[in-house]
Structure prediction request, 124 residues.
Amino acid sequence: MNTPRTTLYRDKHNAKLMGVCSGIADYTGVNVLWVRLGTLALCLGLGWPILAYFVAGFVLNKKPPHLYRDASEQKYWQSVRQSPKRTAREIRANFRDIDRRLAAVESHYVSSNPRLTAEIERLR
Prediction:
């Protein structure tokens, strides 16, 4: 089963209470300490965010144990969630670079192999 990687989960592995702050930190890529401090400040200042925290703790699903293969995949999905358009631009740029490099390899190989050049010309 393919688990959605763009969903907010509770992260019980890094949790202090219910895993909501660590889940938000995992989702956004922000350091969990800053998320916890922000949550604490909101709870002390406004009061009602404590209720929202517990509601989120009961509503959110627990993060699957093997959601990411490694840290680079986790970082990739965090960037997708933060800015999907930027991520798509970066992927297109990477493909253009790969295509350019592949064309250069092909050009080098064809130009240094007269038999292959003749075969390509014969096919045209």
Remarks:
- The helical segments are 20-28, 32-46, 49-59, 71-82, 84-111, 114-123.
- The chain has a mean pLDDT of 81.
- The first helix runs from residue 20 to 28.
- The chain has six helices and no strands.
